[in-house]
Specification:
By secondary structure, this protein is mainly alpha-helical. The protein has a domain of 183 residues: Cytochrome c-like domain (Cytochrome Bc1 Complex, Chain D, domain 2). The protein is 38% helix and 4% strand. The strands form three sheets. The protein has a three-stranded antiparallel beta sheet. Strand 4 and strand 5 form a beta hairpin. The longest helix has 16 residues. It is globular, with a radius of gyration of 22 Å. The structure holds heme C (2 copies). The site of one heme C has 23 residues, from helix 4, helix 6 and helix 7. It is found in: Cell envelope. This is His-Xaa-Ser system-associated MauG-like protein. It holds the Pfam family CCP_MauG.
Length: 407
């Protein structure tokens, strides 16, 4: 198992503080490489600048929604680290950002908005909290089944929000259900709306060599995917510079790294180039609102596989820029990063069961059952260690390429 980089070495390293700083640095460096960290350049795919330009305009355009009132950039905002800063996204009918948006009375999308850091980079192949779109090798899995219009999972993922009723559609006539037929109808309307915008039409002609109104929706989705890949591509963080270059970490950051790869067992799941195994695990976290499955419940991965063993499991989230993307967890139930970290090893210390409804408690009991099988359930952390882990997470930051304009 990846995390078992000699626990013995780590114990020695922590105990002999001053003289062993070099030893501790090399332990963390080796552990990071062992756990799959690669230089940032090895995660970045080549992107086409003309396609990126169309994608950026489409990403920011309200013409991408049936009622021309919401854009991708409404929920994926720079100010909140490419997410929206609220526990559950607010879609159609919502106004403004942050707390104002929560109070605006729009439709709740019962999941926490995911940020874009590294999304769609090399090896980033499983999307959404429940992994409902994934592509490994030739196998593309999505709700479109055999009707998927691309073999690139990020393109398919980008085609979903514009046809989700609560997210970007609303009630337009009879189109209140999410079917392949209504999706096609909506896509055709969106292409017309986008083509009517002169800036988008110009950029599309340059990128595709075809008049904008002759394009298909999947062409715009390809462009949006290209923009996400380009704009949020992993850049060298301070941690990359430490592992692969001459960068140094402070004492607290170094200690945090030792806990991350050692005692805390974080890297058993948060591993690989993006600090995610792209697998599904149970970390107890109640739904902050109605829940994907109603009544404050979210079955998570079970919704995709129907396997009872997957109930309450969610994709390990990547950790780049994680300190900028509060609140945390699939339901946004934790507003502080320290709370969600503590919830991994001692959930009863942070959950207020009195405040939950009875079905929500049932849901958490199910999660606890699977959680007990996760090794992280046996790693108790002190408050000081928690702080050091947070110092470590602060070394995983980098900036996006271009400013995103939100409506
Ligand atoms: C109403 C707010 C909202 C809007 C508008 C929105 N998103 Fe999202 N986005 C979310 C939420 C919430 C999630 C997490 C959903 C889940 O996992 O079930 C998400 C997740 C994603 C992901 C998955 C990221 C990952 O790491 O797996 C992608 C890709 C994405 N959105 C792209 C887009 C694109 C492209 C648009 C515009 C076409 C868009 N989003 C519009 C709220 C929104
Ligand atoms: C057993 C696998 C596993 C281990 C080990 C693990 N995590 Fe997680 N982590 C997850 C999963 C799954 C989630 C999402 C839980 C949810 O939303 O239901 C998560 C969520 C998080 C989040 C919130 C991210 C976000 O965007 O919402 C942070 C921060 C985090 N983990 C840090 C850590 C740290 C630090 C450790 C070590 C103490 C650790 N994790 C160990 C699987 C794991």
């Amino acid at each position: 198992m990846k995390f078992v980089i000699s626990s013995f070495l780590i114990a020695c390293a922590i105990s002999t503080s001053v003289a062993a700083s070099d030893l501790r640095s090399s332990v963390v460096r080796e552990a990071a490489i062992e756990a799959g960290l690669v230089p940032s350049s090895a995660t970045r795919p080549k992107t086409d600048p003309d396609l990126v330009s169309v994608g950026k305009l489409a990403f920011e355009a309200t013409e991408l929604s049936a009622g021309q009132n919401i854009a991708c950039a409404t929920c994926h905002r720079d100010r909140f680290g490419s997410a929206d800063g609220i526990p559950n996204a607010v879609g159609i009918g919502g106004d403004g950002a942050g707390d104002i948006r929560v109070a605006s009375g729009g439709r709740t999308v019962p999941r926490n908005t995911l940020p874009f850091w590294g999304v769609g980079g090399i090896g980033y192949d499983t999307f959404f909290w429940d992994g409902k779109v994934s592509g490994r090798g030739d196998d593309l899995i999505s709700q479109f089944g055999a009707h998927a219009l691309s073999s690139d999972p990020l393109v398919v993922a980008a085609m979903i929000p514009p046809v989700e009723v609560d997210e970007m559609v609303g009630d337009i006539g009879h189109l209140t259900t999410e079917t392949v037929g209504s999706a096609t109808f909506i896509y055709n309307q969106l292409v017309e709306q986008l083509a009517a915008d002169p800036d988008i039409a110009d950029a599309a002609l340059r990128a595709f060599g075809t008049s904008a109104k002759d394009l298909k929706f999947e062409n715009y989705a390809e462009a949006i995917a290209e923009f996400i890949r380009f704009n949020f591509a992993v850049q060298d963080t301070r941690f990359h510079e430490f592992v692969f270059g001459k960068g140094k970490l402070t004492e607290d950051e170094l200690n945090g790294g030792l806990i991350f790869y050692g005692k805390g067992r974080c890297s058993m799941c948060h591993n690989g180039p993006y600090f995610s195994d792209f697998n599904f695990h149970s970390i107890p976290s109640p739904s902050a609102s109605f829940g994907k499955n109603g009544f404050g419940i979210d079955y998570g991965r079970f919704n995709v596989t129907n396997d009872p063993n997957d109930r309450g499991k969610f994709r390990t989230p990547p950790l780049f820029n994680v300190l900028r993307t509060a609140p945390y967890g699939h339901s946004g139930a934790y507003s502080e990063v320290s709370d969600i970290i503590l919830a991994h090893s001692d959930p009863l210390a942070v959950l207020n069961f009195q405040e939950l409804s009875s079905p929500q408690r049932q849901d958490v009991y199910q999660q606890l059952r699977h959680w007990l099988e996760e090794p992280v359930s046996q790693s108790a952390l002190t408050l000081k260690e928690l702080d050091q882990l947070i110092s470590f997470l602060a070394t995983l930051e980098f900036d996006s390429k271009r400013e995103v304009r939100s409506p």
